[in-house]
Design a protein that fits this description.
Shape: globular
Largest sheet: 7 strands, mixed
Distance between the termini: 36 Å
Number of strands: 11
Number of helices: 0
Strand content: over 45%
Order of helices and strands: EEEEEEEEEEE
Radius of gyration: 14 Å
Structural class: mainly beta
């Protein structure tokens, strides 16, 4: 399974941060997997942001729930992150990852994409 993040590297404050994760060698409707977003701000640890299931159900971090949306495009095997009202505190490397429901682990990761929120 391969995952690849894509999106703008620079977002202005108050705008929406939007990223795409394209999945290869597995379908996002495969019942063995959920699909997740993480981020790592500079000098901080990895933060789980949310997940979308093979059935399309979402679960979000409570700290982001008011601003986050994760959706998908099943024909193109992609899932998306939208984070509204971006602030400089949202500056981070963003990762998408697969969650194996069989192994109970995050087993495949994208390479990560740097997103900076700045005017």
């Amino acid at each position: 399974v391969q995952l690849q993040e894509a999106g703008p590297g620079l977002v202005k404050p108050s705008q929406t941060l939007s990223l795409t994760c394209t999945v290869s060698n597995a379908t996002i409707t495969n019942t063995d997997y959920y699909w997740s977003w993480f981020r790592q701000p500079p000098g901080k640890g990895l933060e789980w942001m949310g997940v979308i299931g093979y059935e399309g159900r979402n679960y979000y971090s409570p700290s982001l729930k008011s601003r986050i949306s994760i959706s998908r495009d099943t024909p193109n095997n992609q899932f998306f992150l939208q984070l509204n009202s971006a602030t400089p505190e949202d500056t981070a490397v963003y990762y998408c990852a697969s969650v194996s429901l069989v192994r109970g682990a995050y087993d495949y990761w994208g390479q990560g994409i740097q997103v900076t929120v700045s005017s």
